[in-house]
Design brief:
Length: 131
C-alpha cells in the first residue's frame, strides 16, 4: 500500500518553533506531542547520560532537513479538542478557575434545594400531595 503525501509525515527540524536548532520542535511535530515535553525529556536525558545525547542532538541538527516556512496566508491557529489540560496547552490555573466556578454554581443550586426542602412550603406541599 502506498501512502499519499497528505498522510506521510517526514521528520524535519522546525526552526520557527525551536529554541536552538529546532530538533526538539521537529520531533514534537512528528510525534504530535507538546514541544515542552520533548524538551524536558531531552534535558533530563542530557543530565543523566553525559555527552551521548549532545552528540545525537548535534547529529540530528546536521542530518535533518529544515522544515520550510509556511506563508503567512496559510498559517492558521490550530484549536484541537481538549482531552487533557496539558495536551491542549491550556494553563492549569485557567482550568482550575473553570472547575472552581462550576463547583460554585453547583453549590449554589444545592443550597437552593436545601432551603426549599427545609422550608415550611415544602412540608405543606408534601402534605397536600398526600391528601
Amino acid at each position: 500500500m502506498s501512502q499519499t503525501n497528505e498522510t506521510r509525515r517526514t521528520l524535519m527540524r522546525d526552526k520557527a518553533k525551536g529554541k536552538i536548532a529546532g530538533v526538539c520542535a521537529g520531533i514534537a511535530d512528528y510525534y504530535n506531542i507538546e514541544v515542552w515535553l520533548v524538551r524536558i525529556i531531552a534535558v533530563t536525558a542530557l543530565i543523566f547520560s553525559s555527552s551521548f545525547v549532545t552528540v545525537i542532538y548535534i547529529a540530528l541538527w546536521f542530518i535533518l532537513d529544515e522544515k520550510p516556512a509556511e506563508p503567512a496566508a496559510l498559517q492558521t491557529s490550530h484549536i484541537g479538542v481538549k482531552t487533557k489540560v496539558w495536551e491542549a496547552g491550556e494553563a492549569p490555573t485557567r482550568a482550575f478557575l473553570e472547575i472552581q466556578q462550576e463547583f460554585k454554581e453547583l453549590e449554589h443550586a444545592l443550597q437552593q434545594m436545601e432551603r426549599y426542602v427545609t422550608s415550611n412550603s415544602f412540608k405543606l406541599d408534601r402534605e397536600l400531595k398526600q391528601l
